[in-house]
Write a structure and sequence with these properties.
Strand order of the largest sheet of chain A: 1-2
Largest interface: A-B, 81 and 76 residues
Oligomer: heterodimer
Number of helices of chain B: 11
CATH class of the largest domain in chain B: Alpha Beta
Distance between the termini of chain B: 37 Å
Radius of gyration of chain B: 22 Å
Structural class of chain B: alpha/beta
Distance between the termini of chain A: 26 Å
Order of helices and strands of chain B: HEEHEEHEHHEEHHHEHEEEHH
Strand content of chain A: under 5%
Shape of chain B: globular
Helix content of chain A: 55-70%
Shape of chain A: globular
Number of domains of chain A: 4
Number of domains of chain B: 2
Largest sheet of chain A: 2 strands, antiparallel
């Protein structure tokens, strides 16, 4: 059978009925209310589906319909203006996550149990759960994708020192406020972030015997890139500028502090610039220098293009994006505009990272989740539990890092389709009913359109149906094993 | 780079990796050959050794692993982090270096390696490393895993090229495995490489009917021309190969204790694969956390804990596979070493010269290899780092040539002429 838009719209209607919290209901309610007026409406073009997959954690049915209605570019503009997208339903979902709004000191206190037993798990677990829920449910998808990007760029592992509670503050006050803002502000906030200073050992960077860790990664990973033109001497000089940048330990525990007594007051030269004695202002001067450096523009533009367009992005696109970075004073939206509007049409397949596998399966099938432990175990086995990458380079972006570990993805696919993940619920019968699919081939086609953007090629579909038949799959088994197979399939691993 | 202080959470979240796991009752069973009938000294299909490559990620501090306690400058550079001399009576015996040859000694946490040293199965190569002087973890690790001098040269890894240039007729899906969630870069090459985190966890679930249907679906879906097809088919093959093993039936040689960590479990899985004769030629595994900028510790503390995990793991593997020592080579490497002088926060910053450990039945054991460059002023390089006197590729190249029977060294390490220095027999 051919995949019919009518069935697709019924799916959208199903989403509308099921998602009582969703504030976008009017859009697709209107669409689904009058299918006849949409005669001839096709599933999304392959390039639009890929673009949508790249700027979301997997497109929901209503997002596909919305793009089909207003066009990709208009939709991207909506996403870039993330603050004007109503996200009240997400807000409600997170309202009981009380640690998200606590100060560092409150988080530390909150975690102190009886008998000196400090609970170091609840805070990072709540942050990870909240993050997954945002990725699955937020309507500000591009924003959440950028939050993930900067979380990798300014990676902090919650397993290092006090980062188990400081990361919650970093996420709230560094990454999220600036994810679509100015790079300079983001860098500035990150440099003053207690979590970052602890993670990269700057809270123990003292005069006379500096600790180079943060100074090096600030240039190598956060700004200039390893080929950005700095030397070992620059690392050592910047480390001297950063002596005394630390974190309060007793009162106002976990707040940033500049400890003048530990600061090296001698003259320094960083990247050819003479830094006169100015206490905390010295490193801040270097932060400004790094934020505006041409190597930074190029490095950040390259990484963004890699995330959105291709593992090895076209050099012209990178050049144009890095010019936009420089001309717009590091405005992240301006860089994204170039990358998305110029680049998405020629986007190359990217291998889904584990978070994307999980979130896209849930979103495309309209599953519900509380982001609980069992789902988390799946993510951990795939290799991407939130905020647990140990080294400061962030979870790998290139496909090659992930493609060798398929088994946990297959395990997740089967467990999800069979509803064996506690706290996560998938209703395949509802989807089957809405889609009207009855024969095995129809189920494969409908599920393929839903999960892969378009149905599997007919020979692959027929082969799959035949194999399932020989393996003894009866009518009752089919929806689950087909959904599992498709989520585990090669095509679903790419976005 | 960060130093992971607690990995407990992660390990807890993956309870299947720990020794205490209860094997699910439906795990397919097929017994291992009982120990008394285990083949002694049988070679892998290549005719060469099984190679275990252990990457110590984060730049391990070579000077506190094999300690130059006879070097005058050592304790001056490291007043708080230096490992006490073997004869330093002011320090508890358990915190002093274990003397090896009057000049070098092992960090006290490496005591579990003494039996291997005494058996002539341990050969450290000191002051070795790569020419790269970026002191960047990520650049240095990438170049080292690719086995190249700089960004030019093949993108594949040196192990991948070794496998690609040696046709052993071994088509086992387990010819090369990376232990962990992400396969090591060194393995990348022309054959698909799979990450294997846990044999016990390598299955599709409980309901046999659903599993059979899922396997049928996967076999059908992984048949096209997608780049993933090869990896998917290999994953299915491994699934099948592992269904013939029974992790429940596997007992390491009596009395052995692998560390109860992901690293320890990884080594245990390797021993299992070696004994099961499934065609394993190369296994790669990582041990991270060596980036000790802060609170490194001396005879005890953070780094001592890591060394203990490393030593107990290596010792368990060495003893578990003692009957296979004749065809087993283990090598450790790290992207670079650390600054000779300690920093102001009881740690060490990024340095240059590093250290490799070779273990196995055919290493030239019982001596410290490599020309010692010294730690005095004028002998240190860059901002005060141990010099590199042996290129790490000379060590790996000799392993490939002598123990893996692969003469294609120019292809494995393009741009570097491997010099055989007698690290192995």
């Amino acid at each position: 059978m051919t995949f019919s838009r009518r069935n697709f719209l019924r799916l959208a209607g199903l989403v509308a009925a099921g998602a009582t919290l969703s504030a976008c209901a009017p859009v697709y309610a209107r669409l689904a209310g009058d299918p006849k007026s949409l005669a001839g409406w096709p599933p999304l073009a392959a390039t639009d589906f890929r673009a949508l997959s790249r700027v979301t954690f997997g497109p929901r049915v209503e997002e596909r319909l919305h793009v089909a209605e207003i066009g990709l570019n208009e939709w991207l503009e909506e996403q870039l203006a993330h603050e004007s997208i109503d996200d009240q339903s997400l807000h409600w979902r997170l309202q009981n996550f009380e640690t998200l709004t606590m100060s560092a000191a409150e988080l530390a206190d909150w975690s102190e149990g009886l008998f000196d037993d400090v609970d170091k798990q609840s805070v990072p677990r709540e942050l990870a759960r909240a993050t997954l829920i945002r990725q699955v449910y937020s309507r500000r998808q591009l924003y959440e994708v950028m939050v993930e990007f900067w979380t990798d760029h300014f990676n902090i592992s919650v397993e290092k020192g006090d980062c188990w509670f400081l990361k919650t503050v970093d996420d709230r006050e560094v990454i999220r406020p600036h994810a679509l803002g100015k790079f300079r502000d983001l860098l500035w906030a990150s440099a003053h972030s207690p979590a970052m200073l602890v993670y990269l050992d700057n809270q123990v960077n003292h005069k006379g015997a500096p600790n180079e860790n943060y100074a090096r990664e600030l240039m190598e990973l956060h700004t200039l890139g390893v080929h950005g033109g700095y030397t070992q001497q620059d690392v050592q000089e910047l480390a001297r500028c950063l002596t005394g940048w630390s974190v309060k330990e007793a009162f106002w525990r976990g707040d940033f502090t500049f400890n003048a007594g530990q600061h090296d007051t001698g003259a320094k030269t960083v990247l050819g610039l003479t830094i006169n004695p100015d206490g905390q202002g010295e490193a801040e001067q270097v932060v400004e220098l790094l934020a505006a450096h041409p190597s930074t523009a190029r490095f950040v533009a390259t990484k963004l293009a890699r995330r959105f367009i291709a593992d090895e992005p076209p050099s012209e696109l990178v050049a144009k994006a890095s010019t936009a970075f420089t001309q717009n004073d590091g405005d992240i939206r301006a860089v994204l505009r170039v990358i998305l509007f110029d680049g998405l049409a020629s986007a190359q397949p990217k291998f889904k990272r584990p978070v994307n596998v999980v979130a896209s399966a849930l979103r495309m099938l309209n599953a519900t989740t509380d982001g609980g432990e069992v789902l988390y175990d799946h993510l951990a086995r795939m290799g991407q539990a939130h905020f647990r990458w140990p080294t400061p380079d962030g979870y790998p972006d290139r496909s090659g890092a992930w493609s060798g570990n398929l088994m946990p993805r297959w395990q997740f696919a089967l467990a999800l389709a069979r509803n064996e993940i506690k706290g996560t619920k998938l209703d395949l019968s509802e989807i089957a009913q809405a889609s009207g699919a009855q024969t095995p081939a129809e189920i494969v086609d409908q599920s393929g359109a839903l999960l892969l953007g378009s149905p599997l090629p007919a020979p692959t579909r027929d082969d799959l149906v035949a194999s399932l038949g020989s393996a003894g799959a009866g009518d009752a088994d089919l929806p689950a094993v087909i959904a599992a197979g498709l989520i585990a399939s090669p095509a679903f691993q790419w976005r | 780079m960060s130093l992971t202080l607690t990995r407990q959470n992660f390990l807890q979240s993956s309870a299947a990796l720990t020794g205490a796991v209860a094997w699910p009752a439906w795990m397919p069973r097929l017994a291992f050959a009982p120990p008394e009938t285990a083949p002694r000294g049988r070679r892998s299909p290549s005719g060469g050794d099984t190679l275990v490559v252990i990457f110590l990620r984060g730049a391990a501090d070579a000077l506190n692993i094999v300690v130059p306690h006879g070097e005058a400058a050592y304790h001056a550079l490291r007043p708080t982090l230096g490992i006490a001399r073997p004869d330093d009576n002011h320090v508890a015996r358990g915190l002093r270096a274990i003397d090896l040859d009057g000049f070098f000694g092992l960090h006290p946490a490496l005591r579990p390696l003494l039996p291997a040293w005494q058996a002539g199965h341990l050969a450290p190569v000191h002051a070795c490393g790569a020419p790269d002087e970026s002191r960047s973890h990520f650049k240095a690790m990438e170049l080292m895993e690719r086995g190249v001098d700089d960004e030019r040269g093949p993108a594949s890894g040196w192990i991948g090229r070794h496998l690609a240039t040696l046709n052993t007729g071994n088509h086992s899906p387990l010819r090369a495995v990376g232990l962990g969630a992400i396969p090591q870069r060194s393995l990348s090459g022309s054959i698909p490489v799979s990450a294997l985190r846990s044999i016990a966890d390598f299955h599709l679930g409980g309901d046999p009917r659903a599993v059979a249907q899922m396997q049928a679906a996967l076999a059908s879906l992984y048949a096209g021309d997608d780049p993933l097809t090869a990896i998917g088919r290999e994953t299915l093959d491994i699934l099948e190969a592992l269904q013939a093993l029974d992790p429940r039936g596997y007992q390491p040689t009596t009395g052995l204790m692998y560390p109860d960590t992901e690293f320890g479990m990884g080594l245990r899985q390797m021993a299992m694969l070696v004994k099961a004769e499934v065609g394993l030629e190369v296994a790669a595994i990582d041990l991270g956390g060596w980036d000790t900028h802060f609170a490194q510790g001396a005879g005890e503390g953070l780094m001592a804990g890591l060394l203990k995990e490393l030593a107990e793991g290596l010792a368990a593997l060495h003893a578990d596979l003692f009957d296979y020592a004749d065809r087993l080579t283990i090598v450790t490497l790290s992207e670079f070493g650390r600054r000779a002088q300690e920093n102001g926060s009881l740690g060490t910053d990024h340095g240059h010269g590093s250290l490799m450990l070779l273990m196995g039945g055919h290493v030239s054991g019982g001596k410290i290899h490599g020309q010692w460059p010294g730690l005095a002023e004028g002998q240190l390089v860059g901002p005060g780092d141990l010099a590199v006197t042996t290129d790490y590729r000379d060590v790996l190249g000799e392993v490939c040539f002598k123990r893996l029977n692969n003469p294609a060294l120019a292809e494995i390490f393009p741009g570097h002429e491997v010099k055989l220095r007698g690290f192995l027999r």
